[in-house]
Amino acid sequence: MRTEASVLHLDLDAFFAAVEQRDKPSLRGKPVVVGGVGGRGVVSTASYEARRYGVRSAMSTREARSRCPHAAFLSGRFHAYRETSERVMGLLRSVSPLVEPLSLDEAFVDLRQADLPDLAVPTVTAFAQDLRRRVVEVTDGLTASVGVGSSKFIAKIASDLDKPDGLVVVAPGTERDLLRPMNVTVIPGVGPATTERLRRVGIHTVEELETVTEDEMVRLLGNAHGTWLFHLARAQDDRAVEPERETKSVSVEGTYDTDLTDRTLMEGLLTRQAGEVATRLGKNGLSGRTVTIKVRLHDFTTLSRSSTLPSPTDSRTTIARMARTLLADLDTSGGVRLLGVGVSGLADWVQEDLFGETAEAEEELPEIVVPHHSRRTWAPGMDVEHEEMGRGWVWGSGRGVVTVRFETAQTPAGPVRSYAEDDPALSAWRPPEPDPAAGG
DNA sequence: TCTGGGGTCCTAGGACCC
DNA sequence: TCTGGGGTCCTAGGACCC
Fold it and tell me: Where's the UmuC domain (predicted)?
């Protein structure tokens, strides 16, 4: 924790709804709800007019409609949100090089790196007011709530205290007095489960939380969370403002209006999602080793299955096949409401293609053709054929061994076998069409 | 017809290696 | 012939955030 109030947190007010009201004057002053409009949609953002009717983020759209039937229900225009967000982040970066975006509508700014004569409360207050004015300017009318304090934690709490269109600067030294009367739920990281655990031992406020020893807290909430909360209860937070945070995973998921029961359809949907994940990996120059599927059953039970390759991939065919294979192990007979595919274990480099082709070339050539029996030709995802086992694809290779998973569209979870990489029974599978470029 | 989609981080158990 | 530890990787699930 710093001795001066030099961490700023900025939060754009009802951001998605505010962009809609800005761009569509007929919506100004009226309740606007942005979110999923389908049968199983939830509210992403409600304008303050809609909040007066009890509409809240994360509420089902169905309930929002019953609370506020005359609201405008919009599915969202993410390009507009992103574009507006970039203008705000650009403004923040012009003020300090240390800007950490948390989402499209939120960021931390380190004021130690800003051009300020000093970091006294009156100075940062004037600076923050001017920044809020410039946000309105640069966004054509959107307002922001800002908090400034001696840490990320305090700045974030402060920006919440006078919403919307407010500013709160917490004077150094007053943090703990501010926190004590507050409910534990104001602490970021304290959600429903933690709140309930604390409630059961009679803890509701930060002041009560302060009475718990670190050991007790760890016993109650686990090592990481317990230790973390022990310190936050005392306003102890030394986290730096981190401008660059690297991506750890990329995923696509979808909830369907009616439960799925057709396995072939599920495989088709996973295949399409895998393609979207691969495209996004490729655009960002990423590849990853672990493919995970997510399946939410009719009763909301959520399952995940994952599998890790020997080397990273960004190939749509490999990701899709792994996804379908993982699905094969699951009983989905009761119906599925959500399917998803993700890739993690990311490397910021793409495995060098054996033919020196670019990722774009793979888009046109989903089936890779490899020469017969030459060494070092087995890359994950390649189609191969075994004299006895039939057609399969390379699961992994290395140290002279190639592992092949045999599958057909009907039986995705085929057996896995390993062979010496120069086993003559194993050959590259060729598409039925003659390919003059393939050579021998 | 309650309950999105994109993420991050943590835990716990088992495998495996030294 | 009884029973080490530590470290790392992988998997599944859960809590939480916006």
Answer: 7-191
Q: Please give the Cα distance from A132 to A139 (Å, whole number).
A: 11
Q: A232-247: per-residue pLDDT in tens? A: 999 999 999 999 999 9
In the numeric block, the tokens 């909430």 are attached to A221
Of A215, A199, A334, A217, the C-alpha closest to A266 is: A334
Place of tokens 């750890």: A248
Rounded Cα–Cα distance for residues A427 and A385 (Å): 5
CATH code of the domain occupying A249-354: 3.30.1490.100
> Strand B neighbours with CB under 7 A?
A 35-36, 39-42, 44, 57-58, 60, 62, 222-225, 247-255, 280, 299-300, 337-338, 340, 342, 344
Q: Which fold has domain A177-232?
A: DNA polymerase; domain 1 (1.10.150)
pLDDT in tens, A62-97: 999 999 999 999 999 999 999 999 999 999 999 999
pLDDT at A22: 97
Q: Specify the pTM.
A: 0.83
Judge whether A106 counts as a catalytic residue.
Answer: yes
CB A397 within 8 Å of CB A403: yes
Q: How far is the CA of A107 from the C1' of C8 (A)?
A: 35
- Which CATH architecture fits A15-78? 3-Layer(aba) Sandwich (3.40)
- Catalytic: which of A4, A100, A106, A362? A106
User: Does the pLDDT at position A377 exceed 70?
Assistant: no
**A213: which DSSP letter?**
-
Distance CA A9, CA A145 (A): 8
